[in-house]
Amino acid sequence: AQKITQTQPGMFVQEKEAVTLDCTYDTSDPSYGLFWYKQPSSGEMIFLIYQGSYDQQNATEGRYSLNFQKARKSANLVISASQLGDSAMYFCAMREGGGRDDKIIFGKGTRLHILP
Amino acid sequence: EPEVTQTPSHQVTQMGQEVILRCVPISNHLYFYWYRQILGQKVEFLVSFYNNEISEKSEIFDDQFSVERPDGSNFTLKIRSTKLEDSAMYFCASSGGAGGGETQYFGPGTRLLVL
Fold this sequence. Notes:
- The complex is a heterodimer of chains A (116) and B (115).
- Chain A is mainly β and 116 residues long.
- Helix content of chain A is 0%, strand content 51%.
- In chain A, strands 2, 5, 6, 10, 11 and 12 form a six-stranded mixed β-sheet that branches.
- In chain A, strand 10 and strand 11 form a beta hairpin.
- Chain B has 115 residues and is an all-beta fold.
- The model of chain B has no long low-confidence stretch (mean pLDDT 92).
- Chains A and B meet through strand 5, strand 6, strand 10 and strand 11 of A and strand 4, strand 5, strand 9 and strand 10 of B.
């Protein structure tokens, strides 16, 4: 079974609109962390936002927020006021367990296209 | 802002040759990782490293692969005898600074092409 599911292979959004990228995860471990990374066409992997399983509030970082719905095992990324530079591949990822050296498991990604 | 660096950015090699990919993790981080991404596919975990030992490795990380922290700053991935299917982007990552942060910060990657 997939640990991380991103159901949107591609999305097209008008500039300045808000975007929601979907992510669901599967784990039985009570301690886990959820990440979103951005991969532009140049290939690097840029960390965007992190949510711990015990965090009470949804994480926010500038224009990025993570809509964490624990009971639904959902961790959607919301980008407010999208910009042309947001066009990239976006990966949702999960670290299972409480160990700080635990590996990250990635989803297949969503390719976001921002239209002018 | 501190960042993970990787060299080279691109490497082309012949099948059967040895390659060494180099990484300089963020200086106060304690945990180091290698991941790879075959073109058009998702990122896959290879190995994690802590306290000069491998913490965990995936089934991809067979006897052809090895990792080393030869000094206080570098972290290397060696592929002894490359195969065509080793062509991929290889990412180094590090985490676990003094603040106990859990976020893994990735380097810019080395794009390896095996001919």
